[in-house]
Amino acid sequence: MPSTGDLKREAAEAALGYVKPGMVLGLGTGSTARLFLEGVARLVAGGMDLKGVPTSLATAGAAKDLGVPLTSFEERASVDLAVDGADEVDPKLDLIKGLGGALFREKIVAAAAQQFVVIVDESKLVPRLGVRAPVPVEVHPFGWRFAAKSLESLGATVDLRRASGEAFRTDNGNHILDARFPSLASAERLAGQIAAIPGVVGHGLFLKMASTVLVGTGKGVRTLRRPGKPRRKS
Ligand code: 5RP
Questions:
Q1: Alpha carbon distance 55, 125 (integer Å)
Q2: pTM for this predicted structure
Q3: Residue 208: which residues within 8 A CB-CB, separation 6 or more?
Q4: DSSP E strand stretches across 55-170
Q5: How many Å apart are CA 98 and CA 34, to the nearest integer?
Q6: Range of the structural domain that residue 167 is part of
Q7: pLDDT of 198-230, one tens digit each?
Q8: Residue with the nearest Cα to atom 4 of ligand 1?
């Protein structure tokens, strides 16, 4: 019986098939993205010319440790291929991301990618978004209580994310509110409502962004594709 780690590795290894020499790669955050990064490090060690744009300080540190060259996103407006994990994937390939706290940079890099490939184990597939994961909402610390109240008025139960007893801080110095909605029937409408709350810096609804989702199943990788060219939306 393969472990969740095995399934994540299966998906991460399959994503290496999308990597071509000379590419600039968006490097995601989290345990599955880390496995992809290890594969990229192998390709680099084998002589492939690749550069990465990290989506978090943790990924930047890991890339340096593994010998994957990085380039600054401040010097470019796009990447060739972004590869990242997800917390939930629905049948339309819409996602919830951000349980790892890196959603703000992850969304920018995914939106800037010619191709956004998501790598997950099969436990991440859900019939509709929000059945398990909350929607992480990154908020500026100044307005977090107001943002929490505003999310509650949209029907959410809201928790300020904590780490070691303190309010969690993202790489951008912000807090995260984990918002659970009893029904997330219209994710698109909700995404707009959340984004419109003053103080909200970003949220974990990644809608119409993924071009491909690679699912580790233990019986081979399932490839799910969004038909047509994805429209980029938050
Ligand atoms: C980080 C993320 C991660 O991609 C997501 O939490 C999945 O993590 P893992 O691969 O460890 O299950 O969105 O912000």
A1: 23
A2: 0.95
A3: 92, 94, 226, 230, 231, 232, 233
A4: 79-84, 88-89, 95-96, 113-121, 135-139, 157-160, 162-163, 166-167
A5: 15
A6: 135-203
A7: 999 999 999 999 999 999 998 999 999 987 655
A8: 85
In the residue annotation, 10 being an active-site residue is answered as no
Q: What is the number of domains present in the chain?
A: 2
Cα(180) to ligand 1 centroid in Å equals 17
Q: What are phi and psi of 16, to 5 degrees?
A: -65, -25
> Which tokens sit at 69?
């060259």
CATH classification of the domain holding 192: 3.30.70.260
Residues with CB under 6 A from ligand 1: 28-33, 84-87, 97-103, 106
pLDDT at site 183: 85
The verdict on 212 and 156 lying in the same domain is: no
CATH number of the domain residue 71 falls in: 3.40.50.1360
* Residue in 3, 6, 29 to alter for ligand 1 test, most ligand atoms within 8 A of Cβ: 29
* pLDDT of the chain, 234 residues: tens digit per residue: 899 999 999 999 999 999 999 999 999 999 999 999 999 999 999 999 999 999 999 999 999 999 999 998 888 899 999 999 999 999 999 999 999 999 999 999 999 999 999 999 999 999 999 999 999 999 999 989 999 999 999 999 999 999 999 999 999 999 999 999 998 889 999 999 999 999 999 999 999 999 999 999 989 999 999 876 555 545
Same structural domain for residues 35 and 111? yes
